[in-house]
Amino acid sequence: MSAEKSSTYHKNGTPLPAGVPQISRRQIYENRAKRRSIITASLSTVFVILLLSFLIPLTPGWEEVKKSFFDWNILVKVFPALLEAFLVDIMIFAWSSVAIAILGLVIAICRNASSPAFYPLRLFGTIYTDVFRGVPVILAIYLIGFGIPGLGLDRPWNNPYIWGSLALILSYSAYVAEVYRAGIESIHKSQKAAALSLGLSQMDTMRYVILPQAIRRVVPAMMNNFISLQKDVALLSFIGPVELLRQAGVYKSLLANFTPYVGAAIIFLSVTIPATRFADHLIQKQNKQRSQ
Amino acid sequence: MFHKLKLSFYLFIALLALSMPNNILAGNACTNGNLVNPGVLTIASGNPGYAPWVLDNAIEKGKGFEAAVAHEVAKRMGFSGNQIKWVSASFDQSIQPGVKNFDFNLQQFSISADREKVVDFSIPYYTANMAVLVRKHTIEKGAKATLTSVRKLVWGAVANTTGMPFIKTVITPTTSILLYDDNADAVGALKAKQIDAAVFDLPTALFISAVQMDDGVILGQFPAADSTNPDHFGMLLSEGSPLRACVNEALSSMKSDGKLAKIEAQWLQNSTGIPVIK
C-alpha cells in the first residue's frame, strides 16, 4: 500500500507534483472499471426493459390482461380507500412488532438458561419454538382468533384484533427467538467466562456483555423477519379486520378486476423496498466493521 | 321394371339416411360451434358448493336449487347425462383474462353493471332477498327488525359477495364492518360473538340457521325491491359469448312454463313469515 501511495499520477497518467490532490494509479484503474461497469449495466438494463415493453404488448392476450390488471381509472378510484385500509396494517404491525421483539428475546433467554434448575424453562423454550415455527401462521390465527373468543369471552375481550395480533406475535416470536439465539451463541464462550471471572452475575453477564453484542449482530437478520411480518399482517383479514389486502379483494370482487391487488402491491412495496434496502445497508456496514 | 326402380329408389333413400351424419353431437342449432368442448356442455360451479344451492357438493347429481336449474337448462339446450361435463371454477377464475374452461358458471353470482364490463350474465334465474342472521342472545338483548335497531349491531359479511356494499349503503352501521372469506368463517365469527349479525341471501341464511347453528335466528329480511343493489343471480359466461342467447332462451322458457318456480319450490325453503326489516 505505502509503495503505491508514494508514486502518484494525474488522471491521464502523468506524474503529479507534490501538493496536488493525489490519486493513485490503482484508483484510476478502479474508477475506470467502475465507470465501465455502470455504463454496461445501464445499457443492458435499458435494452431488457425496451425488449420486454416491446414484446409483451405483442402477445395476443395483452389487451385483456392490461384491462383486468392495469386499469388506471380503477386504480385511481380505489387507491384512497386502499391507503386508508393500510392504516390498519400499520397499526397491527406497530404493536405486534414491539411485542415480538420482547417475547422473542424472553424465549431466547429461556432456551439459553444453562443452570440445571432452569431446565423447565429451557424445555418450554424448545417446545415453544418447535410448535410455533411448525404451525402455519394462518392456522394459529384461526385457532386463536376464533377459538379463544369462542370459549365464552364477551366484548371487548373477544376482539379479533387482540387475538389475531396475539397469534401473529406467538408465531413470529418463535422465529425471532431463534435469530436472537443464533446471535447469543455467536458470542465466544470466553467472553462469558471472562465476565464471570470478573465477578459479574449470570444475569449481568447476559445483560451487559452478551446481549449488547448479540443483538447488534442480528439486527439485519431481524429486519428480514419484520419485513415478512409486515406482509403477514394481511393474514389477520381472515378473521375479520378489513385491512389493505381484504379491501383490495372486496374491490376485486365488486369490479371484477384485479387492478386493486396491483394497487395493494404498490403500497406494500413502497414500504418493504426501503426497509429491505435499509437491512442491506446495515449488513454491509456490519461486514465493513468486521473486516476492519 | 318400374317395380325394380321403385325398390332401388327406396334402397337409395335408406342408404342416404344411413350415410347422413349421425346425430352424434348433442345440442341444438344455437350451441353448434360455440362450445368450449365440442359436443359437450361444460358447466362450472363452486368448490365446495353450498347448500341449498348444491347438495353434497355434487352438482352432477342434480340435487339442490342450482344443480336442478343447471340440469334443466342443459336439457332444454339439448344436453343430458354424459353430454354434460361438470367442472369447478372460482369467481376469480371466472373473471381472469383469457380462455375460460366452462360454457357457463353458476354459483350465486350477482349481476352488476361493473361485472358486466368483464363478463356476460344470463337473465337472472333467482332473485334473493338479503337476510340478517343473528344468534338468539342478540334478540334477547333487544335487537328488533327495524333499521334503527340493527344499525347498532356489529356487522359481518362474506367479502366476495355484495353483502359489504349492502351493509354500507342500506344499513349504515355505527361500527366498522368485519369481512370473511366464506360462509363458514362468517358463522365462526358469529359463534365467537365477534359479530352480532351477518348478511346472507335468504336461502343461505335459512340453511345456516337450520343446519349449521344451534341458536341461529333470522332477524329479518330486506325485500329485493328495497335494496339499492338487489341480488339477481345470473349464470356467468365469458364476455361476448354467443351461448348467452341459448341460455337465456332456455331460462325464459323455464320461467314461462313454470318449471323454474317448481324447482324453487322443491329446493328452497318457503320464506314466508320472515319479518321484513323497515
How is this structure best summarized?
The complex is a heterodimer of chains A (292) and B (278). With 292 residues, chain A is mainly α.
How would you sum up this structure, described in words?
The complex is a heterodimer of chains A (292) and B (278). Chain A folds into 2 domains: 2-48; 71-291, Orthogonal Bundle (MetI-like fold). Chain A is built from 11 helices and no strands. Chain A has helices at residues 2-6, 25-55, 62-69, 72-112, 119-134, 137-150, 160-186, 189-197, 202-232, 244-255, 259-291. Chain B has 2 domains: 41-125 and 234-267, Periplasmic binding protein-like II (D-Maltodextrin-Binding Protein, domain 2, 3-Layer(aba) Sandwich); 128-222, Periplasmic binding protein-like II (D-Maltodextrin-Binding Protein, domain 2), CATH 3.40.190.10. In chain B, α2 packs across α10. The interface between A and B is medium-sized, with 33 and 33 residues.
Distance between the termini of chain A: 16 Å
The tally of beta strands of chain B, per DSSP, is 12
User: What is the oligomeric state here?
Assistant: heterodimer
Q: Care to count the β-strands of chain A?
A: 0
Largest sheet of chain A: none
Q: Which segments of chain A are poorly predicted (pLDDT under 50) over 5 or more consecutive residues? A: 1-7
The CATH superfamily title of the largest domain in chain B? Periplasmic binding protein-like II
Number of helices of chain A: 11
Q: Report the portion of residues of chain B in β strands.
A: 15-25%
Tell me, what is the CATH class of the largest domain in chain B?
Alpha Beta
Question: Which of globular, elongated, flat, extended, rod-shaped describes the shape of chain B?
Answer: elongated
Overall number of structural domains of chain A: 2
Order of helices and strands of chain B: HEHEHEHEEEHHEHEHEHEEEHH
Descriptive keywords:
heterodimer, A: mainly alpha, 2 domains, 78% helix, disordered N terminus, B: 278 residues, alpha/beta, D-Maltodextrin-Binding Protein, domain 2, 5-stranded mixed sheet, 3-stranded parallel sheet, 12 strands, 36% helix
